[in-house]
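Task: sequence in, structure out. Protein: 5-hydroxyisourate hydrolase.
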Amino acid sequence: MSTEKKPPITCHVLDTTIGRPGASIPVVLTLLNPSSSSSNSPLKFTATTNSDGRVIAWAPASPFSSQGLEEVFREQGDKAYSLTFNTEEYFGQRGVKTFFPEVEVKFVVREEQKGEHFHVPVLLGPFGYTTYRGS
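Result:
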């Protein structure tokens, strides 16, 4: 079992058309309202879903970013985030033309929730998706 600490935000994709995890999907996590001390523009982190369809680690999208997600997550106040899944690339690899070229899920982490973990599963098909706050 891995002793690596989970980031405060993770996600999981299940492909409902094949009943299996959505592996190798590029995902971007964006902090939409960073504090003025960290940046004036949204902060982005990137990852690709693993063979189990999960993102369990994030890398800063910019090589010049010195902040990790854990540090950003501790900033004061309510914070708005989005997860953007590149579904066109994923389905395109199988020759499927999807109606939704990307799926964006926006959510808010309230100040009083900062000690909690946020897991965002997505049930995905080429013509629809469902999401919820998981555990």
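The longest helix spans residues 87-92.
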